[in-house]
Amino acid sequence: MTDLQNQGNLLSQYYRQPKIYIRLPSNGEFYPEGTLDKSENGEYAVYGMTAKDELMFKTPDALLSGQSTVEVIKSCVPAIKDPWQMPTLDVDTVLVAIRIATFGSMMEMSSTCTECTESNDYELDLTNLLSSLGNIEYDSVIDVDPLKVHIRPYTYREMTKTALKTFEQQRIFQIINDDSMSDEQKVEMFGQSFVKITELSVDIIAGCIYAIETPQGTVQDQVQIKEFINNTTKDTFDTISDHIQTMKGRNEIKPVDVTCAGCGHEYKQPFSMDQANFFDR
User: Fold this and answer.
1) Is this model's pTM higher than 0.70 or not?
2) Coil, helix or strand at residue 35
3) Beta strands in 126-208 (DSSP E)
4) For residues 92-121, b (16+ Cβ closer than 10 Å) or e, as one string?
């Protein structure tokens, strides 16, 4: 064996190094066993993207399915072993951190004034955004007398399922507005899409419940929980669904305050985490 082989790859010392360390809003909770290499001090290393990672965000099919995001997170935050199982509480924090580690903390933005329609260019400090994302309280217990329903955040996989739900909803509107189809065809296709949305909604809500306390004992079997969701009253389903949506809303990035350079009008600009643009230099 040669000296070089004994030394290993001499280039390894020039590999990328962690750029920043972050704390996860979930504090490492809600991860199934084996999906997160938990840190003793609660901090996780974040690396900048490689050239291969950047190319992943330019692949439309991988973006739509969420696979590109999963691969980039595994590359840049190696402690997260299975990003599909990552709670959505952590998704935005991790993606913002990867952006900072790759391109720096300042991000150029543009928006259109809601008053005079003039275009405004400005810079957003992602470090401040990252700090705001860390302050999240997740209420995981819902009282539905006499039951106590224990929930967890959506996983990233379930979040991509909600995107499919949105796609089906858009498809319904397309069906309604399609003049080339007969009324009978519209009714049939509308019914098929509506059934898909309903089944998906029930699956997502049931999947977020990991236990239900009853006066007789606690149920954790997912099959039984789904049967309960399918057979409970509308009021109970809505109470659980509304609470899950409220918790989801707490985790969403708030709009950015912008002052128009032309007319001085102050307005709020929604902040998009669209990966195709967010990870563009």
Assistant:
1) yes
2) coil
3) 141-144, 147-151
4) bbbbbbbbbbbeebebeeebebeeeeeebe
